[in-house]
Specification:
The complex is a heterodimer. Chain A has 11 helices and 8 strands. By secondary structure, chain A is of the alpha/beta class. Helices cover about 55% and strands about 10% of the residues of chain B. The chains are: A alpha/beta, B alpha/beta. At the A-B interface, α2, α6 and α9 of A face α2, α7 and α10 of B.
Chain lengths: ~300, ~450
């Protein structure tokens, strides 16, 4: 656990240095005033937190500081940190497999290039190490060699994969996989879907169909839609969450590629405005580079060395 | 693309137009809205700041306050400044004039390099040039396979080498191209983060070895504030010659375009707007700024049409319209040509005024497929003579295409209405669009 936290911290070092680290630099030795608040807002905006969330966080800071008569810089940082940790923590729910409802079906969705297939590979490994029985369904029958890519991941993590030829109907593969997962008493079935821009209504229909068809095999509450968002994404992430949620629900998020200078401040915006919890974060291309999202730890990593 | 930004500006400028008199205060208020819109469009914070300052200094002055239509004047200033930010004129890719010309693609993971490589190869083929795709991504599982499949689908050779490092692969590919009279070599490199020292150094090595004619950064139009840093980093190490923006068919406001351009000074040369390999456009700053301001993009539309429409067929069609012998077969032909132009939604978005009218309307291209299926379920004779499709034929067509008889009825009804319309049209001579009727003059 300690090493995991360290890894997350390391991967976020850049983030901290380039952005939230600036908060410390900005407030150091200064008293809280309007000018300082403006500069803090600027730092938040640069982290992709978005205007509405940034304004509301700064507003709250202004009010709380006035009420508690806070002016010292380290207190300001503490306030910001706890506020962001709180935003990230609310509306959390347990969606990872537990108990007798088997199999859990995770529908891994997202726009093109967000990192779905890599995430499925890492998730398979994660759950297997937790002692779960895992199965993968390769439902991206559109992109060239997506199935081959997933196959390599399934071999790396040593889990079964259900596949069909390119161009096959993804819903039929999902159906077969769910049936097979049920028969084999699998704990969790990870369904990799083709990337689709949320503005393409026909592709969103296809996604709905996959969910509908899977629900013929397992109870609807056993199916969870997980949206993978590229950590470099800006405010469009909000639109992605909204549209995917409307189409197939959105039970949780996975933020990929958070190892860049990517700040993923948009996580805060999503948590604040749409109340969808982040489940995992991807922080590299290795099979172990996936971590359960821990809001306080994340907020801490953002602020402290 | 840029759809939401257009809406925003529409709203803002409506306010300005409504005002009887422009004051410094309401200019400032409007510009605050512009700032908000640009920030929400993911334009980099600093870029927005500079932009606003620039527009403000232009706008708040006698020139504006004394002009007859100050609202228009503000629109023009914002438009001009946007054009200035995006780069003044369309910059073409390096000409494919020596064998081989080399284009090198780089960018983050998942930005769309491989798909773009395929699009460039197809484009070269259209221009009667011989392309070669080079699989230089040896890291991601099945990346080479992906390019192979892609190359196969458009009948373009793919070069790969097992057990070699990317710089060697690229160098060998160039040698191979020289020997085999390839016109255009497209290097598809692995996705990498701009902070990955080792992989960035690898790109430098590739560049040194093959000296590409075009060094393109492929950037996702959904990228947030960090677009600036990543563009800066790639530019610093590789001296980019251009940027390709991808996934512009989504609803991303695409502020990254503005940021990247402003910070690196690199021209944005390409816009990639769909998953089909034919969905590629040159990036035209002026048109893009027009789009942002809700003025449509008729020029791109016309160019697309010219590309997709077979001229001989078009002449034939015009003849048929004139003689009123337009048949269901011609109708089908037309639909296929329309499809070649790209996703319908992006086409309609280019027509001035339509972007707004269609807001929230989703065009389901499957409807077109259904119509096609029905026409395909007809016999050639029926397609030539739709009037003889009676009840039993309708039933057969419906069954054959998986539709209901009502659907077939609807199709026939629509076709007849269209034919009637065309009959009227045929009476006039169509001599192309008169000069000055395009909505670009401000």
């Amino acid at each position: 656990m300690l090493s995991k936290l360290k890894k997350l911290k390391d991967s976020l070092t850049k983030t901290r240095d380039s952005l939230f680290g600036k908060i410390a630099a900005v407030v150091a030795g200064r008293k809280l005033d309007e000018e300082l608040l403006d500069e803090l807002e600027e730092v938040l905006l640069k982290s992709d937190i978005g205007l509405p969330a940034a304004e509301s966080i700064i507003d709250k800071l202004r009010k709380t500081a006035a009420r508690q008569k806070i002016t010292e810089s380290h207190e300001v940082i503490a306030l910001l940190q706890s506020d962001i940790a709180e935003i990230l923590s609310h509306n959390r729910q347990e969606i990872t497999p537990s108990g007798n409802t088997r199999p859990m079906v995770w529908l891994i969705t997202g726009v093109n290039g967000s990192g779905k297939t890599t995430t499925v590979g890492k998730l398979a490994n994660y759950f297997r190490q937790e002692g779960k029985k895992v199965m993968i369904a390769a439902c991206d029958t559109f992109r060239a060699a997506a199935v081959e890519q997933l196959e390599i991941w399934s071999q790396r993590s040593g889990v079964d994969m259900i596949r069909a030829h390119t161009g096959a109907d993804p819903a039929s593969i999902a159906f077969d996989a769910a049936t097979s997962a049920k028969a084999k008493d699998v704990d969790i079935l990870l369904v990799d879907t083709a990337g689709r821009l949320h503005t393409k209504s026909n592709l969103m229909e296809e996604l709905k169909k996959i969910r509908r068809v899977a629900a013929k095999v397992v109870a609807p509450e056993q199916i969870k839609s997980i949206l993978v968002i590229d950590g470099n994404t800006g405010q469009n992430a909000l639109s992605q969450v909204k549209v995917f949620r409307e189409a197939v629900g959105c039970d949780g998020l996975i933020i990929s590629k958070l190892d860049g200078t990517a700040k993923g401040g948009v996580i805060v915006a999503i948590a604040k405005e749409l109340a969808v919890p982040v489940e995992f974060v991807g922080i590299g291309e290795g099979i172990d580079d996936l971590q359960k999202f821990d809001a306080p730890a994340y907020a801490e990593a953002l602020f402290n060395a | 693309m840029f759809g939401e930004l257009v809406d925003r500006f529409d709203g803002i400028f409506k306010k300005l137009r409504g005002a009887g008199k422009l004051t410094e205060k309401n200019i400032r208020d409007s510009l605050r809205e512009v700032r908000r819109a640009l920030l929400e469009a993911d334009v980099n914070y600093k870029v927005v700041k500079d932009f606003i300052a620039q527009v403000e200094s232009e706008a708040i002055g006698e020139k504006v306050l004394k002009s007859i239509e100050p609202g228009q004047q503000i629109v023009k200033i914002v438009h001009d400044e946007l054009v200035a930010l995006l780069g003044h004129k369309a910059e073409p890719l390096a000409a494919i004039d020596k064998s081989p010309t080399v284009y090198m693609l780089c960018g983050l993971q998942g930005s769309g390099k491989t798909t773009l490589a395929g699009k460039l190869a197809l484009d070269a083929k259209r221009k009667k040039k011989k392309p070669l795709l080079v699989a230089a991504d040896i890291y991601r599982p099945a990346a080479v396979k992906q390019l192979m499949v892609l190359g196969d689908s458009i009948d373009v050779e793919v070069f790969s080498l097992d057990g070699q490092k990317p710089p060697e692969i690229c160098l060998e590919a160039k040698k191979h191209a020289e020997k085999n009279f390839v016109d255009l070599v497209i290097l598809d490199t692995a996705g990498r983060l701009h902070i990955d020292e080792e992989l960035m150094a690898e790109l430098e090595q590739i560049k040194e070895k093959v000296t590409p004619d075009e060094m393109l950064l492929v950037a996702d139009s959904m990228t947030g504030q960090d677009a600036v840093t990543l563009a800066e980093q790639f530019h610093k190490r590789l001296n980019l010659t251009g940027v390709a923006l991808t996934k512009l068919d989504g609803d991303a406001r695409g502020g990254a375009a503005i940021s990247i351009r402003a910070v690196t000074g690199c021209p944005i040369k390409l816009a990639s707007i769909g998953e089909k390999l034919s969905d590629l456009e040159s990036f035209h700053p002026d048109r893009m700024a027009s789009r942002i301001l809700g003025m449509g993009d008729i020029v791109t539309l016309v160019e697309k049409a010219q590309d997709a429409v077979d001229e001989e067929k078009a002449v034939e069609l015009a003849e048929k319209i004139k003689k009123n012998t337009f048949t269901l077969e011609d109708f089908q032909n037309q639909m296929q040509q329309l499809k070649k132009m790209g996703p319908l939604e992006s086409i309609l978005g280019m027509i001035p005024g339509v972007g707004k009218a269609l807001k929230g309307v989703h065009i389901d291209e499957r409807n077109l497929l259904r119509v096609e299926a029905m026409i395909q379920s007809m016999t050639p004779y029926e397609r030539q003579n739709p009037q003889l499709i009676d009840g039993s034929r309708k039933k057969r067509i419906a069954l054959g295409s998986g539709n209901s008889v009502q659907d077939v009825n609807n199709l026939l009804k629509q076709f007849l209405a269209m034919k009637k319309m065309m009959k009227n049209m045929g009476k006039f001579k169509i001599k192309g669009i008169p000069k000055g009727s395009l909505p670009f003059q401000m």
